[in-house]
Design a protein that fits this description.
289 residues, alpha/beta, six-stranded mixed beta sheet, four-stranded antiparallel beta sheet, 11 helices, 42% helix, binds adenosine-5'-diphosphate
């Protein structure tokens, strides 16, 4: 699996007074098994960008390749592409509509033309993967809490067995418990099924915990594309874009300013913990000596 955007520009309502340059010369390549985070201020172009990944919108200029094929070439089957690149929109629970959970999740596989047996098999597997217990399959999707509804909606996309799962702010509006459930579920899908994940989020802390590569968007441009630790080291630039580094980076920076020998480039909370513990142990030793 490979997805490649080359020099994408996108303009909403071109030639009208509402014309808006949403993406400017964005190039991006996503490989098999990546866990890619995408962050940026509201209006920076994240939603517009991810809709290019499965051909929902056509670039004003530039090319999108899926497995080295131009998805806007004549006769390219974009309907099929949408099964390979599954897009979970913001607040996907608003798209639940069937009378029971199982039927709802069968909707995608049904559209793919699979037999009813296969539809059910995929729906059951996907619901299990997002942690919905079997006894809930026949309940109405509207009976559930926000976090559960969202997991059911994600199962609906998973049931199409995508190679890539793209999620636009899947934790928006959830409490910390619901948020952790969704993120842990994505992490498991990534680890166990090797599914490629593109996660749009406004939380740098979530990015630090899950993303292996981080894209930062600003005013329609891709400004960073690097491992999270490298991105976090640009605190001032991030703040200039209305973003912030993760909390741990600020704590490490404060400790460093106070004279502790910490490594402020920690990429995860665990690394931050380790460098703080090592600095404390170093101090104790120095005090004793
Ligand atoms: P993000 O997802 O980062 O919040 P978007 O991709 O939604 O950013 O928006 C990028 C820019 O395009 C913003 O300036 C936004 O106002 C504009 N935009 C988004 N959708 C539309 C639309 N349907 N019509 C016109 N402008 C739009």
């Amino acid at each position: 699996m490979s997805l490649r955007l080359e020099h994408i520009n996108y303009i909403y309502n071109p030639g009208t007074v509402y014309e808006k340059y949403a993406l400017q010369d964005v190039s991006l390549s996503i490989g098999e098994g990546e866990f890619l985070g995408m962050i940026g201020h509201t209006g920076s172009g994240k939603s517009t960008l991810i809709q290019h990944l499965n051909g929902l919108i056509r670039p004003t200029s530039g090319t999108v390749f899926y497995n080295d094929e131009d998805i806007w070439a004549d006769k390219y089957d974009r309907q099929k592409l949408r099964f390979h690149v599954g897009l979970v929109f913001q607040y996907p629970e608003y798209q639940l509509f069937e009378s029971d959970v199982l039927k709802d999740v069968c909707f995608g596989p049904k559209n793919m033309g699979l037999s009813s047996g296969e539809q059910k098999e995929r729906a059951v597997r996907s619901l299990r993967q997002v942690g919905i217990p079997e006894e809930d399959f026949s309940r109405s999707p509207f009976d559930f809490s926000g976090g559960m509804k969202r997991r059911i909606a994600i199962a609906g996309v998973l049931a199409m067995d995508p190679d890539v799962l793209v999620l636009d702010e899947p934790t928006a509006g959830l409490d910390p418990y619901g948020r952790d459930e969704i993120l842990n579920c994505l992490s498991e899908l990534h680890e166990d099924r090797g599914i490629t994940i593109v996660l749009v989020s406004h939380s740098m802390d979530d990015m630090a915990r899950y993303a292996k590569r981080l894209i930062v968007m600003d005013h329609g441009k891709k400004v960073f594309d690097a491992p999270p630790r490298e991105v976090f080291s640009h605190i001032e630039e991030l703040e200039g874009m209305g973003l912030a580094a993760p909390q741990m980076t600020y704590i490490l920076r404060d400790l460093k300013e106070k004279g502790y020998e910490v490594d402020i480039s920690a990429g995860t909370v665990e690394e931050a913990r380790d460098t703080i513990l090592a600095a404390l142990a170093g101090r104790k030793k120095a005090a004793k000596g």
